[in-house]
Design a protein that fits this description.
Largest sheet: 7 strands, mixed
Strand order of the largest sheet: 4-7-2-1-11-14-13
Structural class: alpha+beta
CATH class of the domain at 34-241: Mainly Beta
Distance between the termini: 12 Å
CATH superfamily of the domain at 34-241: tricorn interacting facor f3 domain
CATH topology of the domain at 34-241: Immunoglobulin-like
Number of helices: 10
Length: about 500
């Protein structure tokens, strides 16, 4: 197989997630005033959503249970600038004064002498419709709705206690329009660890999919409200709805569900494929981290895949690809269940490395298991050739190099940096051995679940387990622009 042959089945998620992640660096390019170290911490969400399909809007009532530190007179939240807030109230129904500036919401709260848990309710409404590079990322309409945490559709606390890292949320939406980086330092990491009870009202024939357990379906005629509850803390809140056919099977005592609207004949095939992938990763990484697993077909997504807590989204066109391409996309999205939803990268390079590059690499290991060594080598050889050619044209760079992700370098060069870091994980496995490689990853996930971690932490654990000094390795391939050797040509 030539290098050209692998490209139609290239990892669209690498590009998609990278595009929606790399511009976190915008937050690192400007300075702003220091904020208090103690921040409010959101413990739980109770959210009611009522979408209006023709207008592409939704009305939201979001109650947050939040621990407020002592001596705090105001709290800062982040919410999509498309939403207009009508009120903010406390648990007694008292109106709280607030100010919204673009995506930053400042709420005045009574001064407390000690940390106190309070309930604050936001009511707001706005449009959910975003297209990036001709792909619909978040949408409400007659075809269905899919709303992801990246749209920042619910209030989050900027720089939430454990997360530490603030980064872009909406800068990317304006990036191609030429808006300056300095306009967007008030963009925040959308992740946190909290549970949720989520209710969504949709047409009666529709089904709503989210994380956790479906606890009720209330019919109102002609609408129906689905309520999902996730008591396990998760890093992001997402939901999908549409007129789906639902197919269910069991895997290791957990329910696997496939929600399809167009490719109904494919449901059982992709459930079987998911079982094989889940078996593979469970052996490599440890127990699947969520209560249930679902596959959701999305319209209007060209070869798109994305992993969210307890479900993955596949673009409808992927269902029409050959078996290997579907296996590649699905295995990548499922790998993200562990790397991206069970642990998080603390800083930008760690986030991209652990939540994009590592899942992409281990998805190739599933391809190797399923389709043989030659297929695995074809992918890696093709990626290395692409990195070499791109670096020769644009100059080499590291995932830790801010200049690699600014506008002037272009999408091709940015994608090459992502692929270079994918190759780093292959070189790392060759360096420490396959057995040690997966032992460390499994231990790392068990010890750091629901935490933000850095690549330095992972490096140290590889050093301890292998007995090798990996300083030079990481200087070359992680912090440096050297392209890892894949061991074959």
């Amino acid at each position: 197989m030539s290098n050209r042959d692998f490209k139609p089945g290239r990892m669209k998620k690498i590009q998609a997630v990278m595009l929606l992640s790399v511009f976190v660096l915008s937050g690192c390019l400007t300075q702003h005033k220091e904020e208090p170290k103690e921040k409010p911490v959101i413990q739980y969400y109770t959210i009611q959503v009522k979408p209006s399909l023709p207008e592409h809007t939704m009305a939201v009532k979001a109650e947050i249970t939040v621990t407020i530190p002592a001596n705090v007179e105001e709290m800062t939240f982040c919410l999509n600038p498309e939403f207009s807030i009508s009120s903010v109230t406390d648990e007694h129904g008292n109106t709280l004064t607030f100010e919204k500036n673009y995506d930053v919401v400042i709420v005045d709260v009574p001064l407390l002498s000690e940390p106190t848990q309070k309930k604050i309710t936001f009511q707001y409404e706005g449009q959910v419709y975003r297209r990036v590079l001709n792909v619909t990322w978040d949408y409400i309409g007659e075809e269905g709705l899919w709303v992801r945490s990246e749209y920042n559709w619910y209030p989050v606390v900027p720089k939430t206690a454990e997360m530490g890292c603030h980064f872009w949320e909406y800068w990317y939406n304006n990036y191609w329009a030429g808006v300056s980086v300095s306009s967007f330092w008030n963009c925040w990491h959308h992740t946190y660890w909290a549970g949720v009870t989520l209710s969504v009202e949709v047409p009666e024939s529709w089904t709503v999919i989210s994380s956790g357990e479906l606890i009720s379906e209330d019919v109102h005629n002609p609408t129906k409200t689905y309520t999902w509850q996730e008591t396990q803390v998760i890093p992001s809140l997402n939901f999908v709805a549409g007129n789906y056919e639902v197919v269910k099977e069991l895997w290791n005592g957990k329910e696997i569900t496939c929600y399809v609207y167009e490719h109904k004949e494919s449901a059982h095939k992709y459930i079987d494929l998911s079982k094989e992938i889940l078996d593979f990763y469970s052996d490599k990484f440890g127990e699947y981290p969520f209560q249930q697993f679902s596959i959701v077909e999305l319209p209007e997504h060209a070869e798109y895949s994305s992993g969210k807590p307890s479900f993955v989204m596949l673009g409808s066109s992927l269902f029409e690809k050959d078996e290997k391409e579907v296996a590649h996309a699905l295995s990548e999205a499922i790998a993200y269940q562990w790397w991206g939803n069970a642990v998080l990268g603390y800083d930008t390079p760690s986030l991209l490395s652990l939540e994009v590059c590592l899942p992409s690499y281990v998805s190739l290991l599933f391809i190797k298991e399923q389709y043989g060594e030659d297929e695995f080598r074809n992918y890696l050889t093709g990626y290395r050739t692409e990195v070499e050619e791109t670096f020769a044209e644009y100059g080499g760079a590291s995932i830790t190099d801010i200049s690699a992700f600014i506008r002037g370098r272009g999408l091709k060069q940015r994608n090459a940096v992502i692929l270079k870091t994918l190759l780093l994980f292959h070189a790392l496995q060759e360096e420490v051995g396959e057995e040690t490689f997966f032992e460390v990853l499994q231990t790392f996930l068990a010890e750091h679940r629901e935490k933000s971690v850095t690549m330095e932490t992972l490096k140290e654990e590889f050093e301890q387990s292998s007995g090798k000094d990996l300083d030079q390795f990481f200087e070359q391939y992680y912090y440096g622009s050297d392209i890892p050797d894949i061991g074959f040509s």
